[in-house]
Amino acid sequence: MHTLQRRSLGNIFDRFTLDTLEEPVSRIADTLLDRLGEQLRTTKEADFATTVGEEMPAATISHWLRLPESDHDLLKSLTHGQGLAQELLPSKSQLVQANEAAEGLRTYFTEVIRERRQGLGDDVLSDWIRIWDEIEPDRAVADETLYHLVMFIVIASLETTSTLLSNMVWLLDQHPGSMAWLRSHPEQVPQAVEEVLRYDPPIHLTTRVATEDTILSGFRIARDEVVHVMLGAANHDPAHHTDPDTFDILRTGSHLGFGGGIHYCIGAALARLEAIVLLKSLVRRFPTLRVTAPPVWEPRVAFRRLTALHVTER
Ligand code: HEM
Description:
With 314 residues, this protein is mainly alpha-helical.
């Protein structure tokens, strides 16, 4: 089922789509940075996480899926709630909250699909509806699959990218030499984004269940056993990364920030585009931006969430 669903989407962020998205993503970054600049001028301090980090992925994904701007706050709050279900050891109250959020997401996206069906157009969701109507003769089953796909993509895209965008500003603030280097070498921004994803990725852990008895790197794993894949730790494996605990924006090589294998992140190219566009603009427009206090993190390990990052200009 996973393979069928993933194939049905195709390469959603191919070169053509990314080229088309570059202009709107740049526009979104400019608008949010204007807002940041305005706040810095009037109150001398701003919260980068809420002003830019959380807004940019919501605006980008809504533009791509053609969802109204007025729904951003609702979507952000529902995805924050649903993300709790993906924690390592969610508490009962977290699961209740996640369940309520999942119900809210179901209502929201069921309605989105119903409305879109009334006027299929030249947009990505309309394309998926056409594709699933060909694959699945039962309209109710097609709609259920579409609802899952769209909801999952939105959940997977918001907090993860927000964390990358804010954490990128925090890590570069902690390494002023790297920030200074990027100001004179903006062409190395993409490499710096990769290093943020390696050094401190938004998702530290994913989970798998063994489908058969197996031996992995000398460890015996029995069928049905749960395996937690520590992506954040793997990114600091000295067998793969020289001097792994050094933040080095000139580093090359791969990392596991977007996972690996058949579940490799489907939105990696979009997340990279957002981070690159934003960081290029930021180093150009705010050369004296400084963080005033360490970021505030929610106590999560799987889907991490940075809720506040106060900045000023010095
Ligand atoms: C910095 C931002 C992002 C990070 C760090 C990230 C990370 C990941 C990781 C680690 C996985 C693998 C999960 C697993 O193996 O169980 C994954 C899967 C996925 N991601 Fe992302 N992601 C990001 C942004 C996005 C965006 C922007 C989208 C959509 C537009 C997206 C959609 C997905 C989907 C649909 C999957 C599931 C793929 C599958 O199961 O085949 N992600 N992501």
